[in-house]
Amino acid sequence: MSNFCETINSKSLLGTLRPLQEKYELVKAVRGRGLLVGVEFGEPKSFLLRNAWSMMHRINPGLFSQAFTIPLLEKHAILTQVAGHNEDVLKIAPALVVTREDLDAFVRAFDEVLAAAHSFPGPFWNVASGLAKNALS
Fold first, then answer.
1. Taking residues 34-51, what's their average pLDDT?
2. Given 6, 49, 56, 135, which is the most exposed site by the fewest CB atoms within 10 A?
């Protein structure tokens, strides 16, 4: 089994994630350098998602992207983090020895969590609601 650096490069990592930008209105941009990739979320156009997005940002601007980290870790055992305080950017930083199979599993898991975020109400929004309640208390 060869390692990530031998089998694919950072452009193919970005290339694997960029189609999600076209597929999901919450994904504003996918950018990166080397193996460090950021997925930026942006305000959606559809009415229900836009209202949910706005509500989350009024409560705390950093909650929305944080809501992605929880299902990725709990359901898929994938560790991600928010790129900064009050940022709508999810940071993806795979290990240097990640395999193509690892990358494919990540993309499937992230696709599943993004799909849940586009279904309002739904499990993603239950996590977001829990974060919002904690932020308000």
1. 91
2. 6
Q: Is the pLDDT of residue 77 over 80?
A: yes
pTM metric for this prediction: 0.84
CATH fold, domain 4-132, is: Aspartate Aminotransferase, domain 1 (3.90.1150)
| Four-CA torsion 77, 79, 80, 81, nearest 10 degrees | 130
Q: Is 11 within 8 Å of 32 (Cβ atoms)?
A: no
List the chain domain ranges.
Answer: 4-132
Please tell me the distance from the alpha carbon of residue 109 to that of residue 39, in angstroms, as a whole number. 14
Q: Which of 82, 85, 74, 8 is nearest to 39 (CA)?
A: 82
Let me know: does 78 contact 109? Beta carbons within 8 Å.
yes
